[in-house]
Amino acid sequence: MNYADLPGYTVGGTIHIVVNNLLGFTTSYLEEHSTRFAACIARRQSIPIFHVNGEDVDAVVRVARLATEYRYQFGTDVVIDLIGYRRHGHSEVDDPTVTQPLLYKKIKEHPPLWEIYADDIGAADAQAQAAAVKAEFESAQKDAGKITKKPLMRDLPTYWDQYYGGLHKPEFEVETGLSTEELAELTNHLTTYPEGFHIHPKVKKLLEQRAEMGTGKRAVDYGMAEALAFASLVKAGFPVRLSGQDTRRGTFNQRHSVLIDIENENEYVPLENIAPGQARCGIHNSTLSEPGVLGFEYGYSRDYPEALVLWEAQFGDFVNVAQAIIDQFISAGEAKWNLLSGLVLLLPHGYEGQGPEHSSARIERFIQLAAKHNIQIAQPSNAAQYFHLLRRQALRHWRKPLVVFTPKSMLRHPDASSPIADFTQKNFQNVLPDTEIEEADRILVCTGKIGHELQAERKKRKDNSTAIVFLEQLYPFPDKELVAEFARHGDTGEIVWVQEEPANMGALFNMLPRLQRIAGARHVLSVKRSSSASPATGSAKAHEVEQKTLLTLAFTTKG
């Protein structure tokens, strides 16, 4: 049947097949579900659920055809609960009679499916056909034993030919800066909308401010830096896709990638109207299902290596729900299967007294997963750095997942905003040196928001002997850049790693040995919160006391 000829044919919906084998390792199917059927969870949706006996071959085919016709007719999801069993329990070496003796006594006495079907159709030569298939399998197994070179899982599509993984090399780098003329042109498209479009007064003011940012009249904040990066990429032919929770507006009201008419709720997306023939740009709000959405975006990045594919958590803390996707695929996909991905994770991170569930994206977990240049970990401290980081991820052909710890309170802060001239520089800097201090007795090494707070504290103290160095890329670790910055300040005094996170979290355990290795004759110390079972205090007042203590210790701790 040609389903496109069906009346009311639409594209949509998915056929979900539950392979119901009545077994959860050693757990009885009666203990595994609160209802009779595994597929009953789908009853919360207004969709059909077909239960079919896996041993009734004709019924299975009939149900599959019925489900397919229903899907194409109505464009909705359909569920097939295919009920069967496992003949050998969990695996060929398992002994299921230990935990389910009666069930597996019946299964042992029960003929296999091929014999049942052969009897049903009256196949006279069934035994001979089964023997021939078995012989073919055994022959293939013997041939496989003669293979000396480990085969790849599969040949990658040709669209992966121009991309590569492995260890990072300096020649992989590309220039990411743009001219002031290009930035001004992009700004014009990002800050205008159709005539007659009724824009919200607050968003109108935001666009007016961004117009000043893109033309050098005002420092550029993170939201505008990101918009400029996205716009430049789609104009150059690189697709951009961003999904996550509240991403279209931005959790912190910082993005506004989709403009909404306040009178009729029509939408206008400036990023889709940058230039004729531009690449596609999709900004999508997603459900609060981190593993499902992050898993989908990982797959998307595998199918579209040319695209900048990003997933953003509402707060970085929420990424812990998707840890299985990160552990099994994002961080290990290249090592296990030689499969590359350029997926970007945007994780808002920073200690601002918002409590234990809105402070930490768990830097320590990502650093623990990092080895042999399998992933990139960065925390850009200003808007221009964020711009260059995003463009670098798309423009260079070295495909590695990128974890970005993004700010919250610093999104619009003047200290983290950048002059438009910084967007014309060549590329992202792994280390930001201290340009205010020529020779320091003390070097504070940090990353993210705490660095700006340290700079404010230094100014208040009128300290002219302490340098503050921002480590923008935590992994791969920028040894050479740090060595050069340390050497610029001589070889005496102290190097202090400063972090907001407790001692058992953050980058501390990874940074100390690395800093000690390159510190030369300098002592290496650390300033951090005390070890804690919780990422952060739930009291805003306690946080304020801790933060003040942290800043004081950074300038006074002695080795």
Task: Explain this structure.
With 559 residues, the protein is α/β, with parallel strands linked by helices. The longest helix has 19 residues, at 126-144. 35% of the residues lie in helices and 15% in strands. Helix 6 (180-190) packs antiparallel against helix 7 (201-214), helix 6 packs across helix 8 and helix 9 packs parallel to helix 10 (323-330). The strands form 5 sheets. A 7-stranded mixed sheet has the order 9-6-10-11-13-12-17. Mean pLDDT is 92; it is low at 6-10. It is built from 17 helices and 19 strands. It folds into 3 domains: 3-110, no CATH class; 176-424, Rossmann fold, CATH 3.40.50.12470; 431-556, Rossmann fold (3-Layer(aba) Sandwich). The protein starts with 14 loop residues before the first strand and ends with a helix. It is globular, with a radius of gyration of 29 Å. It has helices spanning 29-32, 57-74, 101-109, 113-121, 126-144, 180-190, 201-214, 222-235, 290-303, 323-330, 333-337, 363-369, 383-395, 449-461, 479-488, 508-518, 540-556; strands at 15-20, 23-24, 27-28, 49-53, 78-83, 240-244, 259-260, 267-268, 281-285, 308-312, 344-348, 376-378, 402-406, 431-432, 442-446, 466-471, 473-475, 494-502, 523-529.
